[in-house]
Amino acid sequence: MAARRHRTRTSAWARVPHARAPAARRRAARAPPVTGLTLRAVEQRDVERVGDLNFVAFYRVALAHGLQPGIASPAESRGYIRHLLTIDPLGGTLAEDEGEVVGLAWVHPRGPVATIGPIAVDPRVQGRGIGRRLLERAVELAGRGVPQVRLVHESFNGQALGLYLHAGFRVVAPLLDLELPAGTAVAPAPAPRTVVVRPAVADDRARLVARDARVFGAPRPQNVDLYLGRGRALVAESPTALVGYALGIGFRGTGYLGSASADDPALLLALVVALAAELASHGVTVRTLVPATDRRLVEGLTAAGFRVFRACHYMVRGGGTAPPANYVLMNGDMM
Ligand SMILES: CC(C)(COP(=O)(O)OP(=O)(O)OC[C@H]1O[C@@H](n2cnc3c(N)ncnc32)[C@H](O)[C@@H]1OP(=O)(O)O)[C@@H](O)C(=O)NCCC(=O)NCCS
Asked: Which of 99, 143, 273, 287 sits between 20 and 30 A of 260, alpha carbons compared?
């Protein structure tokens, strides 16, 4: 019903011709066609325009729902687009209408798993099929036959949920985006006695990449390297086997904690709390994305001072199930 209302209200299928839109629907559309809509790869020269569009789209949807925006400024958003161009230079697509950037989408292909995000459309032209085309392009770029495409969706956002459901994604798990205010003094959570927790060193890289690949579903060494090089990483050993790890990184006042995983739920909590305490003591607000159904982790983190920032959905297209047990997702569209 909502979808039908939306379609009628935005009746712009002729404006943005769509491969799968039935001809009758296209003919029935009333809005003038978008004559110049093109999709192309995002390049360095697009950083400002794409960053600003990303900021405006996300800022507006958060404010419309009375929520604090996840991206605080255009500068932060531009920085994020620069980061995406570094880590996945071929993953970005922008939509242009007569030379003006009106949308963007990013895909992160990692062999059998691809993740998608961000995706955003200029608020002035939302509801006209541009998001759908960008999402389809992102799925195409993930590669034909990639077994699983994932994304994290903010639960409050009905428009985005409609987009994803219509494109064949399904909700497989509820998530919580938790936040620990900067400077919070955090009491440590005890690790099992037989385990030694220490900062990761360069020699841990291969084991970290392998362990992360097991829980994520595919190797992503470039992401692990980012955290090892510019962020913080803890490893847990018992006695010499790697039984857990936690990665975190701070950008302009916000720290992102994850991925993290451990053989044992108590150890996972200990690792996450230890890394969160370290990041918070450096003056960053820490965010982390955890399975909402992991009661022990959620209760442990809220007891440590985390509060709920957002409720989210973990969505997949293709095969694949909920995230594995004792796993904290990597933030920043790399879940
Ligand atoms: C989410 C967003 C990218 C969608 O882009 P868009 O161009 O407005 O979306 P489209 O016009 O392509 O609509 C896509 C589909 O969603 C459907 N849809 C939209 N709103 C809906 C709703 N409330 N309920 C159900 N379906 C809905 C449309 O009917 C359409 O499906 P169809 O092609 O089968 O008819 C855009 O609204 C946006 O930028 N929002 C702010 C940023 C954001 O929230 N990004 C996603 C974060 S999770």
From this structure: 143
